[in-house]
């Protein structure tokens, strides 16, 4: 159970900031609600989560980013959305507001939009340096984001990102929405993680409303989460190999991904399983033939996938591109609380399923693979091992799937809830506050990408420009989930 928020003074806020800076705590989220700014943090030794709230005077609060860099972009987003300013912040440039909106501070004191000042990218000193601007429009069908490279010849000296181009205003749309409407919006924060977002939103709502979900629905949620995980891992493994010009792996992994998506459609009526997880349980049961179809899928993957792993591991030209490329130092992964394969490839063993033991994972057996090389190759191997673990989890879920109802009734009332769910790229956080009618007063959603995008800037430093697509794909951060 997540404890309620604790309102703190400036001294309490600064003490928590110092504990983040020293590594005693890990930052999970930083968001605003009216004149309040809240911080969620994790004690990784005990798996305890705390939430602190500071009420801003004159729209200002002490900067967390001044002592703890992972908070910098979150503070800039708060300024763009709410107009609340972090005193002492090392970077006060706008983040989500790119000058396209009709109003400034849309979730705060709405004001007429001003013509934006030219965006100043950070400088880099040295001889013979040149800049390469990439995006926000990219070749192919890909989400928009701007990347500004400073390079010496082919070697990258600095990379700086500018994101926010796919800000959809989801948190604004949620305000005043019914739980059903808000659940649909949550599931569209990042389409490749629709199950994970719906799972986290439903958990937060159930904590707020003190609802117990039927066991049958609990196991179905985990089943969908593992199917989403392996589908995305297959896509990523193939795409990383494709960026290293090894198209055979791309094609074969694409076949496996498509096989999973067809099975999810057969089992739950939608290839991405969108809108199946809802507050209180699930909107539909697994199809009568679903268990048999899933067992066939697991058997087929286990027959084909080992040969693809061997092909990846034994292709020297592929290893030459992935080994020692795009290294994330373990210290950086710990400092930023990097989740998923980014963190676990760099020695950070955190997995919300294991650390928080939310149902039904507290009843299931699985390993959390961890490596410490931190390169593209390590991020591929974490995905490979996680596919293997997910296959075993699917079998356990099918073996233990209880009979019963699929949804519990909800009673409208005020409340707050916070949930952390393990998506395929890392932990997704949802904090939710409901009013007395049971409608959403405020909801904050935080994608794992918030703490992974900055590490991509560090990982590419010293590599050649041509290796950026490979590094970028090995991270596969979500533009949509970040921009929300």
Mean pLDDT: 96
Low-confidence stretches: none
- CATH architecture annotation of the largest domain: Orthogonal Bundle
Report the portion of residues in β strands.
15-25%
* Ends distance: 26 Å
The Rg value, from CA coordinates, equals 22 Å
Features:
alpha+beta; Beta Polymerase, domain 2; Cytochrome-c3 Hydrogenase, chain B; 2 domains; 3-stranded antiparallel beta sheet; 18% strand
Please write out the topology:
Blueprint: E1 6-7, H1 10-21, E2 26-33, E3 36-43, E4 48-55, E5 60-62, H2 72-82, E6 85-87, E7 103-104, E8 111-112, E9 130-134, E10 146-152, E11 155-162, H3 170-174, H4 179-186, H5 194-209, H6 215-243, H7 247-268, E12 277-278, E13 281-282, H8 290-314, H9 316-322, H10 330-335, H11 340-344, H12 352-355, H13 376-400, E14 415-423, E15 426-434, E16 440-446, H14 453-460, H15 468-475, H16 479-483
Parallel strand pairs: 1-4, 5-6
Antiparallel strand pairs: 2-3, 3-4, 7-8, 9-10, 10-11, 12-13, 14-15, 15-16
Helix pairs in contact: 4-5, 6-7, 6-13, 6-15, 7-8, 8-13, 13-15, 14-15
């Amino acid at each position: 159970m997540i404890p309620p928020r604790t309102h703190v003074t400036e001294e309490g806020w600064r003490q928590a900031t110092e504990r983040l800076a020293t590594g005693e705590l890990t930052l999970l989220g930083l968001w605003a609600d009216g004149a309040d700014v809240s911080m969620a943090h994790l004690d990784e030794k005990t798996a305890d989560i705390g939430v602190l709230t500071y009420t801003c005077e004159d729209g200002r609060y002490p900067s967390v980013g001044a002592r703890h860099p992972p908070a910098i972009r979150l503070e800039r987003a708060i300024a763009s959305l709410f107009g609340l300013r972090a005193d002492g912040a090392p970077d006060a440039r706008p983040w989500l507001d790119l000058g396209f909106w009709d109003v400034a501070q849309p979730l705060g004191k709405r004001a007429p939009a001003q013509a934006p000042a030219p965006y100043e990218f950070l400088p880099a000193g040295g001889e013979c340096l040149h800049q390469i601007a990439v995006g926000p429009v990219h070749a192919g069908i890909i989400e928009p984001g701007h990347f500004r490279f400073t390079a010496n010849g082919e070697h990258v000296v600095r990379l700086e990102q500018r994101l926010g181009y796919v800000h959809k205003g989801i948190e604004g749309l949620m305000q005043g929405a019914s739980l059903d409407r808000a659940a649909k919006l949550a599931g569209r924060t990042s389409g490749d993680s629709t199950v994970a977002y719906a799972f986290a939103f439903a958990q937060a709502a159930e904590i707020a409303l003190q609802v117990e979900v039927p066991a049958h629905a609990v196991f179905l949620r985990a089943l969908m989460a593992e199917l989403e995980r392996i589908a995305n891992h297959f896509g990523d493994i193939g795409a990383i190999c494709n960026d290293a010009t090894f198209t055979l792996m791309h094609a074969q992994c694409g076949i496996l991904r498509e096989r999973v998506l067809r099975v999810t459609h057969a089992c739950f009526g939608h290839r991405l399983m969108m809108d199946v997880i809802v507050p209180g349980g699930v909107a539909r049961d697994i199809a009568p033939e679903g268990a048999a179809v899933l067992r066939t899928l697991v058997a087929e993957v286990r027959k084909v996938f080992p040969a693809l792993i061997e092909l990846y591991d034994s292709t020297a030209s592929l290893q030459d591109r992935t080994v020692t490329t795009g290294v994330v130092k373990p210290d950086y992964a710990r400092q930023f609380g990097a989740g998923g394969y980014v963190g676990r490839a760099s020695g950070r063993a955190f997995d919300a399923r294991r650390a928080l033991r939310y149902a039904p994972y507290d009843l299931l057996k699985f390993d959390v693979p961890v490596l410490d090389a931190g390169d593209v190759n390590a991020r591929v191997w974490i995905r490979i091992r996680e596919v293997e673990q997910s296959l075993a989890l699917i079998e356990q879920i099918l073996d233990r799937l209880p009979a019963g109802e699929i949804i519990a009734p909800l009673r409208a009332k005020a409340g707050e809830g916070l949930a952390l769910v393990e998506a395929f790229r890392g932990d997704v956080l949802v904090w939710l506050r409901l009013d007395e009618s049971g409608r959403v007063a405020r909801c904050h959603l935080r994608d794992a990408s918030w703490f992974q995008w900055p590490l991509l800037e560090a990982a590419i430093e010293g590599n050649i420009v041509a290796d950026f697509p490979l590094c970028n794909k090995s991270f596969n951060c979500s533009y949509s989930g970040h921009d929300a």
